[in-house]
Amino acid sequence: MKPRGPVVAIDGPSGAGKSTVSRNVAKKLGFKYVDTGAMYRAFAVAVEDEGISPEDEDALKEFTKRVDVCFDKDGHIYVNRRDYTHRIRTPLADRLSSVISTKGFVRERLVSLQRRIGEEGYVIMEGRDIGTVVFPDADVKIYLVASQEVRAERRFRELKEKGHRGSKEEILKAISERDRRDTERSHSPLRRAEDAVVVDTTELSLEEVEERVMKLIERGIKEWK
Fold it and tell me: Is the pTM of this model over 0.70?
């Protein structure tokens, strides 16, 4: 089904600035913001709560069939009506989602839920396969990138502010491994859509990135106004 309003797809590797930029720009435009990475993290933590091993495909498939992941109007994320908002920004959630998100049947289920969320349009959806798989006909496609070193530094500061421990070296190693898994997985690998505009955030401030993204979106959705 074609969305009933403009859809903006913002993709890129972990730590490139997708979440903060997408959230802020969506607020300025009055669009709905959807963090698909949060959906995978919440799903992964819910799997852990169920006591299901990622290697137990039968149990994982059964849980996936009956799972519902959604957001409320305040941006809180729920899995089967249970609030997981405050449990998904941890190294554990990162590790679990990195493994579980490689499962094709998991991605198929969550992609179907993401499309359902985006049906109304007027949405900025960010992740790793929005412009290539979830909404390949999105009105605007943006691909944010940054060096691994800069992304590791950003992640280090974020975790430190939340009281989590970890060295920059460990985080850099984890990001490198995540990039490898995301680009090499057989289902919906991380890649830039051919018609996506690349924005390198390595040496840009948050304000500069938001300004560039805003201009790209405003230029791309003029026909909807």
Answer: yes
Instruction: Determine how many CB atoms are found less than 10 A away from the CB of residue 58.
Output: 8
Compute the residue count for the chain: 225
DSSP secondary structure code for residue 187 in this structure: S
47-64 residue pLDDT tens: 999 999 989 999 999 999
Domain boundaries, the chain: 7-224
Helices (H) and strands (E) in the chain, counts: 8, 8
pLDDT, tens digit (0-9, with 9 covering 90-100), for 173-194: 988 988 888 888 877 788 999 9
Residue in 83, 97, 84 with CA at minimum distance from that of residue 41? 97
Classify each residue of 76-107 as buried b or exposed e, where b means 16 or more C-beta atoms within 10 Å of its C-beta: ebbbeeeebeebbeeeebbebbbebbbbeebb
CATH number attached to the domain at 7-224: 3.40.50.300
Distance CA 66, CA 175 (A): 31
Q: What's the CA angle centered on 98, arms 11 and 107, to 5 degrees?
A: 65
Residues whose CB falls within 8 Å of the CB of residue 149, separated by 6 or more in sequence, listed in order: 172
